[in-house]
Amino acid sequence: MAENKKVKIQLVRSLIGTRESHRATVRGLGLGRVNSVSELQDTPAVRGMMNKVSYLIKELH
Asked: How far, rounded to the nearest angstrom, does the alpha carbon of residue 52 sit from its chain's CA centroid?
């Protein structure tokens, strides 16, 4: 992947009632509150984290 490739994600659902590992993953993505947005490097590790909590987030363009 390109070195400067970025991905922007937004937390769209609450973390209440989710597994602790999913909450930790969301924090690792730099998201805290509902509707918070984070811009990260587009790496396989970040894509894997996004896949794990895909039901809580959406990718912005």
From this structure: 9
- Cα 35 from chain centroid (whole Å): 11
pLDDT confidence bin for 2, thresholds 50/70/90 = low
CB 43 within 8 A of CB 20: no
- pLDDT tens digits for range 28-51: 999 999 999 999 999 999 999 999
Our count of domains for the chain comes to: 1
Whole-number Å distance between alpha carbons of 7 and 17 = 27
In a domain, 1, yes or no: no
pTM: 0.90
Query: First CA to last CA across the chain, in angstroms?
Result: 17
Q: For the domain that residue 47 is a member of, what is the CATH number?
A: 3.30.1390.20
